[in-house]
Amino acid sequence: MKRSMVAMMSMIILAGGVVGCSSGANSGNNTMAPKADAPKADAPKTDPAAKAKIRVAWWGSQDRNDKTLKAIDLFMKKNPNIEVQSEFIGFDDYWNKVNTQAAGGNLPDLMQIHEGVINEYVSRKLLVDLNPYVDKGTINLKNVDANYLPDKVNGKLWGVNLGTNTMTMVYDPALFEKAGVEELKPGYTYEDLANTLRKMKAKLGKDFYGITLDNGYDGFKHFVRQNGTMFYSEDGKKLAYPDDKVFVEYYTYWQKLMKEGLAPGPEIQSEFKQLENSLLVHGKAAIQPVQSNQIVALVAASKRPLKMTVYPTHPGGKEGHFLKAAMSFAITSHSKSPEAAAKLIDFFTNDAEGNDILAAERGIPISSEIRKSVSAKLPDTSKQMFSYVEVAQKYARESEAPSPAGDNEIRTLLGKLQEQINFGKLTPEEGAKQFRKDAEQILAKSAK
């Protein structure tokens, strides 16, 4: 996998092929009606996507929304028989809305999903297997390596990856320079991070926070991997890490950062919750842990250069990084026009013009041809994302399997416990016990 990803990073200019659209014209030139004794001509086959209306839902930043709407406009110009209705929702409200739609049998035709809900939505029969659309060529995956298609359960393809990414620490080099502190280099430890933040705060004052308060699901999962296990067991019925010391160590570390003013308390963090309104964007923090594709939105919002580095290493531990689907498009079982939805997936995967607009904002494109055509035209920020993934591979190990059904509920559970720990209502030890007890109950229930 590493070899293929390194090859992916070679930035050579190659014209990408644009997916053509059917004109729908009859190729025959007979203008006379058939004779009475002649066999009747077959009725012209109608395009299943003709005059279709589809709804498409996604979450993300305003930058993503703007790019996606422009790309969809181009799709509709190339496919005049398909009307696309867009549903853009902030991440915090996205799952509440789509779960309500699922209960009412009114999910959009096409929805953006992440790997944590694949198994859950499959178990509820809410997604459509995409293999038939791949087999007949509606979705062309000929230039897509299997490593870029993680959304498979029992051999069926439930989503097509919209971009590959990994975790990163985005930082403001100007603040490091202002503080006279050396930028963090890959291989630094958690203690190195804390020491660096102490030096910066001493120079930049009490209103400066070194790092945003991002001690939720993704960061904890990364820390678990650094401690030698996966997050979930192979059968998806329990947590894989055997000792709650991992949980306690992780949240104790963040409590220490908050106590020293190196990370904001939850009251302050809540005022800067949205990506475009983060403490990093406002220059009040030097570092923000995010997914690698989010560098694009952060630079757009902050209007200044930002850089990326890997997560801290854990002395004596294993690598925590892994390459994953940033998010995927899935066709729902409520769709009345799945063929049209499949065409839009193909457009996002293979259309060179469309990907010029999207500019790899969701992550590195999965088509090798699109990677080549897009990478040469990208602004420096997006090129940095491409090169960062190559660096992150050196600090990565095997990817996680698709999360079991119940993962979304577990994310919510951890978010609630995280908040209580951050506010001092629970100790890390109490949170660890509560999380294991409730999470394994969720997994046991979901596995039935």
UniProtKB/TrEMBL annotation:
InterPro entries: Bact_solute-bd_prot1, SBP
Pfam families: SBP_bac_1 (PF01547)
Biased composition regions of type Basic and acidic residues, renumbered to the chain: 37-49
Keywords, alphabetical: Signal
Annotated signal peptide: 1-27
Span list, region Disordered: 30-49
PANTHER family: ABC TRANSPORTER SUBSTRATE-BINDING PROTEIN YESO-RELATED, ARABINOSE-BINDING PROTEIN-RELATED
Protein name: Extracellular solute-binding protein
